[in-house]
Amino acid sequence: MRVFSGIRPTGNLHLGNYLGAMRQWITIQEKEDCVFCVVDLHAITTPYDPKNLKANIFELAIDYLAAGLNPEKCILFIQSSVKEHAELAWLLGTVTPLGELKRMTQFKDKSKQHPEYVNAGLLNYPILMAADILLYQTDIVPIGKDQQQHVELTREIVRDFNKRFGQILKEPRALLPQVGDKIMSLTEPDKKMSKTGNPKSFIGLFEEPESIKAKIMAAVTDTGKDIKFNPVKKPGISNLLTIYSLASGKPIEELEKQFEKKRYSDFKNSLAEYLAEYLKPFSKKRKELLTREVYVNDILRRGSQKAATIAQSTMQEIKTAMGL
Ligand code: TYM
């Protein structure tokens, strides 16, 4: 089965990106045919500084490797290095209903967040994402919950396209983790953890133990003192329980029992310790990779060549079917 996914180089990778998406990538690369991409063309739809973008793109590629992607087991490349992504996005734009784009939650959220920067690229963002996925005739897209709507739209695009032009494109499906598909902000537990939020609201994947501890201890919790999983009544504690469970491998019920008569601060102290230990190997690997620029560039160059071969072949079929 073909697997495709990507992350935007728009800030520090955080625990939500890892637990929602990347953790699935690391396991699935062992058994399926995986393609992972740094989606830089998506990053320019929201405000950014061109002076920093190149470094951010390269560092995200390093982050992928530090988090456990194995270049011998998957294709790893930068989206803008394979020109078929932008080309297919144009073609798919001609079969995507405008109304569908306007109702996308991410478009609405980002338009509100940056009212001065509502460009056509932001509206067309899901078409480029569909192009990313469809160029590789993808079966499975491992993502967090916030991207599910875009994969649903991709499926609709496939159905409309195939109805008009023949059975050319494969209909992909989203793969969400059973636990952790929406990790919430530490400061506002009713909102998702995000790269661009208040630094106290997220834990970076490569954060130092002291800083992890400070953020966990300051995380917003709920009234009452029970350590019980109830996302509606206790969103703060439930989010921390989810993170604890994923970092420690202990089921949530077991954690509830373990901390039955304990205080929030005992629970948070213990979580901070587990988390620091869990994330330690990532920072170590990242520091090492930062000194190996030639090696990383070589991986990206080879990845780009392999990706382009697949993309060009799909593109040829699509163009022929569309009468181009
Ligand atoms: P991006 O860069 O916003 O996020 C990358 C991945 O992390 C997941 N994620 C989360 N999961 C759980 N809890 C959270 N708080 C959280 N925040 C982010 C996202 O669901 C995503 O899987 N449009 C995509 C990038 C993209 C893409 C693609 C993905 C472009 N082309 C093709 C898959 C296939 C995005 O902006 O992700």
Can you tell me about this structure?
With 324 residues, the protein is mainly alpha-helical. The chain folds into two domains: 2-181 and 293-321, HUPs (Rossmann fold, 3-Layer(aba) Sandwich), CATH 3.40.50.620; 199-282, Tyrosyl-Transfer RNA Synthetase, CATH 1.10.240. Helices cover 56% and strands 7% of the residues. A three-stranded parallel β-sheet has the order 1-2-3. Strands 4-5 form a two-stranded parallel sheet. α8 (148-165) links the parallel β4 (140-142) and β5 (173-175). α3 (50-67) crosses α12, α7 (120-135) packs across α8 (148-165) and α9 (209-218) packs antiparallel against α12. The radius of gyration is 20 Å and the shape is globular. The two termini are 29 Å apart. The mean pLDDT is 96. Bound molecules: tryptophanyl-5'AMP.
Structure characteristics:
binds tryptophanyl-5'AMP, Rossmann fold, three-stranded parallel beta sheet, 56% helix, two-stranded parallel ribbon, 324 residues, 2 domains, mainly alpha, Tyrosyl-Transfer RNA Synthetase
